[in-house]
Amino acid sequence: MVAKVTVIVPVYNGAESVGSCLDNLIKQTLKEIEIVCVNDGSTDNSLDVIGDYIEKDKRIKVVSQKNGGLSAARNTGIENTKTPFVMFCDCDDIFALDMCEKMVEAIEQNETDVAACGTEVEYEAHVEISDSDTNYYRLKFAGKNYINDEVTAKTDVSVCDKIFRMDLIKKYGIRFPKKLNNEDYYFYNAYMSVAQTIFFVNRKMYKYIRREGSIMSENFEANKYSPDHLLVAKKLFAFYKKNGFLKMHTDLFWNQFSESFWFSYEHSAKKYRKDIEKLAKRFIEVNYDKYEPMTPRVKRLVYMIRYSDLLHKIWRALKGKIARVYRKVNIAYKQQDYINRNIDKIEQETYVLTEKLENLIGRIKDEDK
Fold first, then answer.
1. How big, in percent rounded to 5, are the helix, strand and coil portions of the chain?
2. Are 87 and 5 in contact (CB under 8 A)?
3. Fewer CB within 10 Å of terminal CB in the chain, N or C?
4. Each residue of 334-345: pLDDT tens digit?
5. Residue 162 belongs to domain spanning
6. Is 214 in a helix, a strand, or coil?
């Protein structure tokens, strides 16, 4: 039996979860699959758990290496892939039982370079961003599409809800950036820049579990990882430039650069923010004139980065003035509210007194008669 697709499963101290992941993979309705587990220097008994599954199913292989991070583990998996197609599954997430079958069908029968499905998110942490996740992972297109800037920008960057062609990955040497987070962002955008077509499968077949302390969860907290988004954007620029993609897609890149800058800035500890600003401004200074954006909207995005320190000073000044005005207005509002409430009270009391007076006058008239 010749395998059609390889599923790469990076594992680092995943002894508690990798079993559930592998259970779903060995039960896939498509039997022609290969499962490559990359043991990324685990210090728990992950390797023993994987070994137990290898005894049950010879389609599972394991490659062990020193701890190098998620990107290094996935890259090792790519180097050990011999099939025409490749998919990725994190060891604490789950494929639907027919995901491999449906994704291979989508990319083969529609003759596309990539296929994507929907993602279901389960929350053990950060449930407060569920609305944002719902919109982000929602499929914005259906069926077969030619890849353009809109399709690239509006599709989620996760590699785990997609299937890729190995010949394109090999031809352009696409790999995940080592020792940097936001690795999916780089791989997805690099691949989409050299691909022509995509097919969207209208089903949620990948279950992503958002956990506390995971790399993805840490992206939403102020910590040392967030500057990586800007560094990844710089790497993406180099890939675009090398493969002749940049000149025709300057708006797409500068939009990506702007998103990466503001994510890095807003989600980083304060001590990193000056460094992020310097890095971004230096990059713009060197590359903007040669690769100037085409539309006024994107030009404004870059302008906001170039003068971010001035904009912040203006905002801080305005913020103080707005606060002072608000306090004054708020005091006046409270005073007016107090007056209005007392007017209402006086009107009510006057109404009651009027009724009593009318009753009294009526009784007096009756007695006079």
1. 55, 15, 30
2. yes
3. C
4. 566 666 666 566
5. 5-221
6. coil
